[in-house]
Amino acid sequence: MSNNNDTIAAVATASGRGGIGIIRVSGPKTQKIIEKLLGSQIPARQACFRLFKEHDDTTIDSGLALYFKSPASYTGEDTLELQGHGGPVVLDMLLKRVLALGARLAEPGEFTQRAFLNNKLDLAQAEAVADIIDAGTSAAAVSAQRSLAGAFSQHIDDLQRQLTHLRLYVESAIDFSDEDIDFLAGDELKKIIADLQKAFKKLSETAKQGSLLRDGMTVVLAGKPNAGKSSLLNALAQRDTAIVTEVAGTTRDILTEKIQIDGMPVHIIDTAGLRETSDIIEQEGVKRAKQAILTADQVLLVVDDQESQTEDYLSLLQDVPTTIPVTVIFNKADMTGAEVGEASSNDGRTVIRLSAKYGDGLNILTKHLKTLMGFNPEEKNIFLARRRHLDALARSNKFLNEGIEQLLSYQAGELFAEDLRLAQSALSEITGKMTPDDLLGEIFSSFCIGK
Ligand SMILES: Nc1nc2c(ncn2[C@@H]2O[C@H](COP(=O)(O)OP(=O)(O)O)[C@@H](O)[C@H]2O)c(=O)[nH]1
Ligand SMILES: [Mg+2]
């Protein structure tokens, strides 16, 4: 990004008309801008009512001016907030004036990026700022607040400390390796390793939950034509999104519906039925269905309950990678008269019997989806996380496990130390201590201007 010695400015409020419009300024020229625009300096951290002046002393607007002196500001630099009237024209005039006084237009996320560079926030916290603004549900907003307050970063720092502890322990054990006691075989080391692995597992689970809360879970409805996939989509969405007919092969394209279950976003994708067909449009639909399945966090395999005893429905799963979990739905329970409910199949899959048409048993499915997303209304410690956080955690955990393997199987202390270093560096990408510049650029450029 651009030079940090620049003074930046931007309208911070949403565009359009509003009661108040705010312009933010940050950088070394802030005091000079105050002097010219307001006619004199103003005290820090006090709301001052002022006229905002043009170069010829005419008034552009009037309102509150707030000055924050470096380093006690959001960005860590001298900053100014001008709270004027929220009309697009008047804000534009005011912004032009500030730019004429030596500021340049801020890039998206540049205020927060400066806060990050000046150690006001770490990267996970900076991302939480964007996530609060973008939050689609109150649950997501509350969790993002928790990340901003440092809940996630705290866990990462704890893990880092535990990794350092392990490294020091092994290094001193190696130093003493001539002596009789074998520290590397001791219970102490086993305990340190077990604690670390437990901490990794717990944090990964919470972060996974936090990322589902942010991005939602993608659920793909798959199965044979006429099993009731589109009916199930409509039932979950509580409206008639998909066309439902008794003609097999009605759905030929992919339909996506975003729903919320207790504030958690879920993307439901309805697909064409999986079958051999000579209809070229339907063939394309089947191809798209198979592609959609690859994007799923969860597949719901919908089976007509009338065929559930005879049909080899599991053969439909041969296209589903084993990494994607599948729940089997026996639909049309009203036709067979079987009781709705949840059970486990022999291979450990959840099987839910329901009636999409009449809604019986639908609540069992929504509860199941909530459980899959790790939803726990009692859990007050969820923080918002992103996919890149999950990736970094997984990578770090992998290096740790490889290192432990080197240590325990081959007594390879050097290789172990190197793996541990890699584990720590993967973790520090989350808080931004070792994040590549291009990734930083990507993260901040996805912010809105003025943040
Ligand atoms: N009796 C009954 N019929 C259903 C149920 N779900 C779907 N159907 C019927 O099954 C047919 C096919 O449904 P549809 O949702 O289009 O299936 P899809 O091809 O898998 O999308 C339609 O005539 C639906 O009304 C159900 O729970 N009970
Ligand atoms: Mg359909």
In short:
This protein is of the alpha/beta class and 451 residues long.
Question: What order do the strands of the largest sheet run in, or round the barrel if closed?
Answer: 8-9-7-10-11-13-12
Largest sheet entry: 7 strands, mixed
Counting helices, strands and paired strands, the structural category is alpha/beta
CATH topology of the largest domain, anyone? Rossmann fold
**Number of helices, counting only DSSP H or I runs of 4 residues or more:** 14
Helix content: 40-55%
Number of beta strands:
13
Ends: how far apart? 15 Å
What overall geometry do the principal axes of the alpha carbons give? Answer: flat
Low-pLDDT stretches = none
Radius of gyration: 29 Å
The CATH architecture term of the largest domain is 3-Layer(aba) Sandwich
Q: How many domains make up the 3D coordinates? A: 3
Average of per-residue pLDDT values: 89
Supply the CATH class of the largest domain. Alpha Beta
How would you describe this structure in keywords?
451 residues; alpha/beta; Gyrase A, domain 2; Four Helix Bundle (Hemerythrin (Met), subunit A); Rossmann fold; 3 domains; 7-stranded mixed beta sheet; 6-stranded mixed beta sheet; 14 helices; binds guanosine-5'-diphosphate; binds magnesium ion
What does the model show?
- This protein has 451 residues and is α/β, with parallel strands linked by helices.
- It folds into 3 domains: 8-118, Gyrase A, domain 2; 132-212 and 383-432, Four Helix Bundle (Hemerythrin (Met), subunit A) (Up-down Bundle), CATH 1.20.120.430; 217-372, Rossmann fold (3-Layer(aba) Sandwich).
- Helix content is 44%, strand content 18%.
- The strands form 2 sheets. A 7-stranded mixed sheet has the order 8-9-7-10-11-13-12, with helices on both faces. A 6-stranded mixed sheet has the order 3-4-5-2-1-6.
- β3 and β4 form a beta hairpin.
- α4 runs antiparallel to α5.
- The protein starts with 7 loop residues before the first strand and ends in a 6-residue tail after the last helix.
- The mean pLDDT is 89.
- The protein binds guanosine-5'-diphosphate (GDP) and magnesium ion.
- Residues 225-231, 244-246, 250-251, 273, 331-332, 334-335, 355-357 line the site of guanosine-5'-diphosphate (GDP).
